[in-house]
Write a structure and sequence with these properties.
Elements lengths: L4 H28 L5 H26 L55
Length: about 120
């Protein structure tokens, strides 16, 4: 089954944030561990701040991802919680309850099996 383009975009946003987080951590170790030369530490410090800015942008883009079905922000819900006992999670849209990675054209309006919601 082909993955819809929206989920490919979400996957790329997730991996971009993950890679930038690793860059922040590695450059912080090189910049402030005291085991590298001053030139390497200075370069790593610039890399740290650049990666940190990139990570902030990537996290905002990840949080602003729009649901392929309803078009609203996938992981942010404003207003009253309409889903009763269901817990908000990143595995479902918080507006229309579309499961993550599901084809929006094939998933029914209501998710029948809610036992996987933790």
């Amino acid at each position: 089954m082909p993955v819809p383009a929206a989920w490919r975009d979400y996957y790329l946003r997730e991996w971009t944030a993950f890679i930038l987080l690793r860059c922040v951590l590695v450059s912080a170790v090189f910049a402030w561990s005291g085991r590298t030369s001053p030139d390497v530490a200075a370069t790593a410090e610039y890399a740290f701040y650049g990666s940190l800015i990139g990570l902030a942008i990537a996290l905002v883009r990840l949080a602003a991802f729009r649901c392929p079905r309803c078009g609203r922000v996938y992981s942010v819900r404003l207003g009253a919680w309409p889903h009763g006992d269901r817990k908000p999670s990143s595995r479902h849209c918080l507006n229309c309850w579309l499961p993550k990675w599901a084809d929006p054209r094939r998933v029914p309006g209501e998710v029948l099996d809610e036992s996987d919601d933790w």
